[in-house]
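This section describes the prediction task in plain terms. A model, or a person checking by hand, is given the sequence of a single protein chain and must write out its three-dimensional structure as a string of tokens. No templates, partner chains or ligands are provided. The sample shown here is typical of the held-out split.
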Amino acid sequence: MVKSLCLMLCVLAAANFTWAQTVPTGYVSASSGFHIIGGTQQLPGTTFTLTTCLALCSGISTCEAVDYNANDSTCFTHTSTTSCDTLVAKTSCSNYRKVSCSVTAPSGYASANSGFHITGGTLQSGTFTTATCLAACTAVSTCLAVDYDSSTSTCWFHTSTTYCNTLLAKAACTNYRKTSCTTSTGTVPTGYSSANVGSHIIGGTLQTGISTFALCLSTCTATTTCAAFDWNSVDSACWFHSSTTACNSLTTKAACTNYRKTACTTTTSTVPTGYASASAGFHIIGGTIQTSITTLALCLSTCTATTTCQAFDWNASLNQCWFHTSTTACNSLTAASAGFHIIGGTIQTSITTLALCLSTCTATTTCQAFDWNASLNQCWFHTSITACNSLTA
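The expected answer:
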């Protein structure tokens, strides 16, 4: 029988959080003062906050956009049928999209970004349509990108100084670039150990003065405290990671590429003899704690010698060993992420220690994840409704 080793190294940290009028984690745009007609009202009669409305959409796989109405505290979700419909002005509403509503790039242009613009362009005199705005930029060699605002019929040119700046959400605008600003590839640059296309690390620091990949790479390379960086090719955004976050788990994000200077390896991730895998930063829910075992070596040797033990989790922070039989050994691996929490959990007021929070969640079938707030000694449980929502720093 093949066994697997899972190493649970840390736990989620919880804190109360209120969304600002920025793009929340898991969403690609936020449009204040707009909504989309045709959404489905969720739980009529329920009073929503922006946080609970966003969390609800995040927990529904078919929800691609959501409108929150602050006046009456209502929440409307959109599937692929309506999520990319035209944004309509409504003062009390805010629209959030989980997907990019792309438009086809016209001939001579590398990209078209509906619902976005770049600040710093030069306003062109006159009244424009999309076609005349594009034609005007096409005819000017120094115009490398253009924003068209359908609400004001205005056209804004961008030169090499601004065309690769960060795309910002603006409902009535569409940005067109003649040349792609994506220069990141899967090639590992000199001085780096890995390039992970389609992935990023949560918890980085946005470098507001950097808007090109080349500058992001060179600046991180020259900065001794920068141990890794993420480049977002859609937003032209650069995020630095220090040694605190550089080796956190990679999270899938299509527009991003993560670059690490040093390999994130530990001796505890080595696959022992007799085992098929070792997964650092993950555990399996549903194991049985072995209270008499307090070292990794004993946890490993005891599981190896026990025929019913098909996998085990080792919690290095608590020196705890958890065995899995064939019933749970192949269940999904669950990430344990320090410095992050999930919005929407239920506080467990009777639990005031990490050990009790962990053991109680493990023993509770409806608890699919938990957050531990070390500063407040608070334990928050998540059911299947919120357990897979986005991690928030």
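For orientation: Residues 1-20 have pLDDT under 50 and may be disordered.
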